[in-house]
Design brief:
Number of domains: 3
Mean pLDDT: 88
Number of strands: 36
Strand content: 25-35%
Number of helices: 13
Low-confidence stretches: 8-24, 165-170
Strand order of the largest sheet: 12-13-14-15-8-9-10-11-19
Helix content: 25-40%
Radius of gyration: 37 Å
Structural class: alpha+beta
Shape: flat
């Protein structure tokens, strides 16, 4: 009987499958790799990756296959469904997503700005970091870890990277060796550390909102932290342990790579090479840095021999709170003085006194908020104008100036460099003002109808009789005859210098603003009384400052009018100074037997916060070295030596005397206790195993 057509088809299918399976079974790992590399030359990335994986199924430790699988896995990430969907969300055209020649770009508006999709949240990108990026990084690192032969090399041609030019190779071959593999492993572990760190903290923000604030020039650190109160809080503390492992692995691989490249590499054109003496020197410096970072995971380490700072990353990986708790306050993008929550970053930065950290922050990022006194050098017009400037937390400066026959009132917004400008639109009574502030000084130019000149002055000290009442005041003056009121503004400096101006044309609504104003100045006496005269207008005033309530009250007299005035403080100035530490009780020398506790104590006064750092033989003491009392629960000969403490706050520092700890030698003999066999038992065995414990007051040297 002849077989049916259906049966013939099944025979052909089964035979073909058998031949195919036989062919696959006969292929070696090397042949799979060779075929995969031919796919790479054709830029068929997925086919190449599949064939490299087939090679690993036959030979899991095949070095070439592991290297190429690690690379192609990462190169294929844009084709992962989650990544592809996110690219679609960002409106990257699918046609240009070629890893070898990427031309796909996000759409732009008429001004050339990127057009974001609606409600784009940073959490969408963090989700991609969590998966598929993090698993891909770990898998590729595991592939490279399978390459263990230090003598292994591989020549990579341009075709392996899909680099061709009219069919001809456009680049020279590169020899990959074990040192290159170690560098690649270090990079993958470093990327894993970054990915885990990004996933550890709350980084959720609406990107469209930030773009909108930036376009309106309203985006600042202060605004960002205010709008996102959970930003940088810890969301996954469980990530810290694997993040520490990833960082440790990255450093270990890099140091091993550095050793290999320096001592074992034969001259060749590798992926990572050091080509001249300058690069060798730079690498040696970087190597020393990463080695110290690894050491800092377990103990404080001095990054620079000429620097007082000691880095200790151990507390970072033991944290249960987010990074937001370490952030200071900000005035727009400027650091608010004395606002750093921890001058040791919760124990991660040791040995640097608080005043040095504070000064560095002020000089680099310091807020301009505070009070300034200035005057004009008149280039034209009559007389000198005395000015007081109040800068608030929003970096907005209010200026009041008083001269013999003129005054000025202005409000300007300062940019991040401390500059601001205001000018009037009334060209009949033209007025303009420019300010330029830095950490301690103020400069600028003022131009009024009757006077103009350069402004020069400085930030005023917080100290003074009227410091509790200093600040910006607002109020009004009321005529006893007409019963009408006019707005007043005033600035009171800590030393009692007072400037008051009358806003005859009403309140200020638009910023920046400047106008000529009726203004006067006075010096407040210790009892709060003051008198003020605006001679060119025949106005005399007397009043009193109430320091407890921060109110100013008084009366004025003019040629055809009289009345009362009242002002209340609307904004207090930033406190910028305080009392530096003073040590009032010194640590004392101690002599104790080995195995006994010892302690050193210090007492100090000064403005809060007081930060303590104890030192033993010039090294920071941890743990327990950050309080007024240093306790050593059980001392040995290794603890003997010199101890001292540095007490600091944002305003200064003080070092204690050196106290010496003397540890007396061991005097208590060890006590031996047999635990097995039990007391009273007998045995007939020739060999007996005795077990027991030995204790003393210090440490047992030998049992």
């Amino acid at each position: 009987m002849k077989p049916s057509l259906t049966l013939k088809c099944w025979i052909i299918v089964v035979a073909s499958a058998g031949l195919c399976a036989s062919s696959h079974a006969q292929k070696t790992a090397d042949s799979w790799v060779q075929q995969a590399r031919s796919y790479l030359a054709q830029r068929q990335l997925y086919a190449a990756h599949t064939n490299f994986l087939a090679a690993l199924r036959l030979e899991p430790n095949h070095p070439e296959a592991n290297l190429f699988v690690a690379g192609t896995r990462l190169a294929l990430l844009p084709q992962e469904p989650a990544v592809s969907n996110f690219l679609n969300r960002l409106r990257f055209p699918a046609a240009g997503r070629d890893i070898y020649h990427w031309t796909s770009q996000m759409p732009r508006d008429e001004q050339g700005d990127i057009k974001l999709p609606a409600n784009l949240n940073s959490s969408e990108a963090i989700a991609l970091v969590r998966s598929p990026l993090l698993p891909a990084l770990r898998a590729s690192a595991a592939n490279l870890a399978a390459i263990t032969n230090a003598a292994w090399t591989l020549v990579l041609g341009p075709q392996d990277l899909g680099i061709t030019n009219n069919g001809a190779n456009s680049e020279d071959p590169v020899t990959v060796d074990y040192g290159d593999v170690l560098v690649l492993r270090a990079l993958l572990h470093a990327a894993e550390f970054v990915a885990l760190t990004l996933d550890t903290y709350n980084l959720n923000v609406v990107v469209n909102r930030l773009e909108d604030l930036a376009r309106r020039d309203e985006l600042s650190v202060q605004r960002l932290l205010k709008e996102y109160p959970s930003l940088l809080t810890m969301s996954k503390p469980s990530n810290l342990a694997p993040a520490r492992t990833a960082l440790t692995n990255a450093i270990a691989c890099y140091l091993a790579a550095s050793d290999f490249i320096r001592s074992q590499r034969i001259e060749r054109n590798g992926l990572f090479t050091l080509e001249n003496e300058e690069e060798w020197a730079d690498e040696a410096q970087f190597r020393d840095f990463v080695a110290k970072v690894r050491q800092s995971l377990d103990e404080p380490v001095q990054l620079d021999d000429e620097d007082d700072g000691w880095l200790y990353l151990g507390p970072y990986f033991a944290r249960t709170r987010g990074l937001r708790d370490l952030l200071p306050q900000f005035h727009k993008n400027r650091y608010a003085w004395n606002s750093l929550p921890s001058y040791t970053l919760d124990g991660m930065l040791l040995g640097v006194p608080a005043d040095e950290i504070e000064q560095a922050l002020r000089e680099e990022f310091g807020s301009y908020a505070g009070l300034y006194r200035a005057s004009t050098r008149g280039d034209w017009g009559a007389g000198e104008v005395h000015l007081a400037v109040f800068v608030n937390a929003q970096q907005q400066a209010t200026i009041i100036g008083a001269g013999w026959d003129t005054g000025v009132f202005a409000v300007v917004d300062l940019d991040d460099s401390g500059r601001g400008h205001a000018s009037s639109e009334d060209y009949t009574n033209w007025a303009a003002l420019w300010l330029d502030l830095d950490l301690d000084q103020i400069e600028g130019w003022v131009e009024l109808p009757s006077i103009g000149g350069w402004i020069s002055g400085e930030r005023v000290s917080d100290t003074g009789r009227w410091r509790p009442a200093a600040g910006l005041y607002s109020g009004s003056a009321t005529s006893s005859r007409s019963r009408q009121s006019v707005p007043l503004r005033a600035i009171l400096l800590p030393d009692g210098h007072l400037l008051v101006c009358v806003l005859e044309s009403g309140v200020v609504t638009n910023i920046p603003a400047i106008r000529a104003a009726l203004a006067g100045k006075a010096q407040v006496a210790d009892d709060g009384s003051f008198s003020m005269a605006i001679e060119s207008y025949g106005v005399m005033g007397t009043g009193r400052v109430d320091g407890a309530t921060a109110r100013i009250t008084g009366r004025y007299e003019a040629e055809d009018d009289h009345g009362t005035f009242t002002l209340s403080r609307t904004e207090a100035p930033l406190v910028t100074s305080g009392q530096p530490p003073t040590i009032t009780g010194q640590p004392q020398n101690q002599t104790v037997p080995a195995g006994s506790p010892a302690s050193f104590s210090v007492t100090a006064s000064g403005s809060a916060p007081l930060i303590y750092q104890w030192y033993f033989d010039d090294r920071p003491v941890i743990p327990g070295g950050q309080s007024a009392t240093l306790r050593l629960p059980k001392v040995s000969a290794a603890n003997a030596g010199e101890y001292y403490v540095i007490v600091s706050n944002p305003f200064g520092q003080a070092a204690s005397r050196v106290a010496r700890l003397t540890v007396l030698p061991e005097t208590v003999p060890p006590k031996l206790t047999i635990t097995s066999p039990a007391s009273g038992r007998s045995t007939t065995n020739a060999a007996v195993l005795l077990q027991g414990t030995a204790t003393d007051n210090d440490q047992v040297v030998q049992v």
